Every structure is written in structure tokens, then in C-alpha cells.
Amino acid sequence: xxxxxxxxxxxxxxxxxxxxxxxxxxxxxxxxxxxxxxxxxxxxxxxxxxxxxxxxxxxxxxxxxxxxxxxxxxxxxxxxxxxxxxxxxxxxxxxxxxxxxxxxxxxxxxxxxxxxxxxxxxxxxxxxxxxxxxxxxxxxxxxxxxxxxxxxxxxxxxxxxxxxxxxxxxxxxxxxxxxxxxxxxxxxxxxxxxxxxxxxxxxxxxxxxxxxxxxxxxxxxxxxxxxxxxxxxxxxxxxxxxxxxxxxxxxxxxxxxxxxxxxxxxxxxxxxxxxxxxxxxxxxxxxxxxxxxxxxxxxxxxxxxxxxxxxxxxxxxxxxxxxxxxxxxxxxxxxxxxxxxxxxxxxxxxxxxxxxxxxxxxxxxxxxxxxxxxxxxxxxxxxxxxxxxxxxxxxxxxxxxxxxxxxxxxxxxxxxxxxxxxxxxxxxxxxxx
Length: 433
Prior knowledge:
With about 425 residues, this protein is of the alpha/beta class. It folds into two domains: about 5-265, 3-Layer(aba) Sandwich (UDP-N-acetylmuramoyl-L-alanine:D-glutamate ligase), CATH 3.40.1190.10; about 275-430, Protein-Tyrosine Phosphatase, Chain A. It is built from 15 helices and 19 strands. It has helices at about 5-10, 15-35, 55-65, 95-110, 120-125, 145-150, 155-170, 185-190, 240-255, 260-265, 295-305, 325-335, 355-365, 380-390, 420-430, and strands at about 45-50, 70-75, 80, 85, 115-120, 135-140, 175-180, 195-200, 205-215, 215-225, 225-235, 275, 285-290, 310-315, 340-345, 375, 395-400, 410, 415. The strands form three sheets. Strands 4-3-2-5-1-6-7-8-9-10-11 form an eleven-stranded mixed β-sheet, sandwiched between helices. A six-stranded mixed β-sheet has the order 12-13-17-14-15-16, sandwiched between helices. Helix 2 (about 15-35) runs parallel beside helix 4 (about 95-110). The termini are far apart. About 50% of the residues are buried.
């Protein structure tokens, strides 16, 4: 049991929440001194937002790598230097400060120039990234998430805004802020930096038009002033128009030319657990995706529903000790857009998983779903995957949502190994009864 866990058990939760950021700040200061402030060796591009952080980070990382830069990457999915990428094991985007320092030291040994760092609202609110000199800040979007921790949407938004303010204070950096103009918070983020760039489909300095969505990715034309870019992003979904636009804006700020930007984005074949298709020769589609917020659910379902030939079957859950308010909302969205809904576990932790499932089910029922007809509750996630795949027929699409790339699942007795993609492959290989 860690010192943090012991302290958490000994004092009231509200008091712990109030003093925790200062503990992280002290830890960050001490370890930065101990490791010689390793973050100062890099030009740091911070990526924050509710959805799309990882895909955007991967796009930027690959684009810079293809352009010849020595670039490091730290995301929800993985970390590493160049194309030598290690899969993330920790069940959080920003790892504990000591581990962060070790990784920065490793990247320094690899002569990394640019670091693409996915940064959460928790890490910013808790000062866990103190000592990291952000040169540039990128915002994807800000929607309903983590209100269990921040209390209000405004506090959640302002925690993310802190990264833009940090970038603006770094007089050795580019002081560039790249924000989503189509997001209600975009203008607020843009105003926080000296050199803002707004991107979007409906408005912005950098715009996308002639958008073509397909199962293999998104293609469109991006323009800003007289500069025009033909973008071919191989990650499907309309949200990846925005993610790749953010990458285009970043490439321009770094100083890449048109060819480097276009070829760099096209070079990324995909991101594990982000619209990952599982193929074992079956006559229906199975897709694994990390979507776990109401906003990501709605965008995903709106994209996928029109192109599904048969039924759309979705399997998902909701994490324990996390925002309860979103559970029924996600259930209602699934019930509205999907033909069949399978509800299961997703990191119950020490919360009653059956209660969580019931909360989600209430939303699905509100959308018209009926239990044991087109709404099913299967608590064991492995069995739920088998069940959802077992329901599929020719032309159907099965979506397995919420875990994506994650390599552990948290239950009352601790973390257990998990592999959503591997479990789906096994379920497809097993003959149907």
C-alpha cells in the first residue's frame, strides 16, 4: 500500500482532495531538482481536451518524425522516442511525477528535440506537470467529463485552460495556442496566448472543406489564407477531421512546409484502440474504440449509423468512482442510435458494478430499449464481448467501446490484465453455438 493510499484512508475525502494538489506540487519540485529539470531540454507541444487528444498527439508526432525531427511522445496509449514506442501500462494519461521524470531523462538520452505531451485536466489541476516548459498548446474540444473530480464544467474547462496560460508564460517558447473554433470554449483558449490559431469546419483561421468520410479514413481540403493542403488521414470518423486540422496547424507553427504536413499526416496508419477494426474473416464488422464520454458517443454513432448495412450493436460500461451523471446520458445515446445495447463492466473499482449497469440501463430504457429484447446486461466484460459478437449477423456492426488500448481493468481487488482487441479476436475465432 502506497503512502498516498494510507493518507487517503486516514483523512476525510474532501480534505484529501483539497491538499492533494500541493502534495503533487512538492513532489514535482523535488523530482525536477533531483533530475535536473529534464523538461527544459525539449520544445514541448501540449495536447489537451476531452476527446481526440491521443489521435491528435499521434498525428503530430508522426508528422514531425517524417519531417526529420527527433521527437518524443507521451500519450494515453504509449510513450517513446522516434518510432521506438512502448505501450502505456499505467491506467492514467499523465503518469506519476517520478515516472514522468524517468521518461524525460530517457528521451534526453535519445536526443529528442520536440516532445508531444498529452496532458489531462487532473495533471494540470494537481501541478503534476510543473517544470514542463510548454512551447505550444493544442486544444481539441471541451465537453462533459470528470465532473466527479472538478465539481463543475467551468472548473474542468479552466484546468485545461491552464496549459495555454503556461505556454504563454514561456518566453523561450513559441507561445502558440491552437484551439477548436467550432467548440464553445475555443475563443476563451485562443485569448489565453500571444499567438492563437483557430481551426474548424464551420469557422476558424484554418478551415476544412470538401470533407469525404469513409471506413478507411477522412479526406478533405484545408486552407488558411492562400495556403491549401490536401489531407488524407487514415483514422476514420468525422472527429478526425478536427484532430488532423489541429495537426496541420501545429505543423505550420513549427515551420513545416506543405509537403511535410501532407505526407506526415498520411504516414500514420492508425492508433491502437481508436476505431480499430477486428478482422477474422467474419461477414460483419467489429470495431474497438476508446469512446467513453457522451460527446464521443454521439459523434461516433452519428458517423457510423448511416453506413451500417444491418444492425448496430454496441457494448460498453462506465467507470466506478468517476462521473455518475454521464451514465444515463450514455445509455440514452446508445439506445437512441443503436439497434441493440449490451451493458457491461468498465473499471468498476470498489463500486457495485450492477448498480452502475442499472444506471446506464435507465438511460437506454428512456430511449425505448427493452431489457432482454434489445437491451442486455452482462457484467463480465469477456462474456459481454462474446455475447455482443454472438448477436451479430451478416452486414451488422459491433462496437466495443470504452477500453480501447488499455491493458488493465480495475476491479474491487485491484488491476487485472486486459486486452480488448485480443479478447475480440478470440471471440471471433470461437464458433458460434
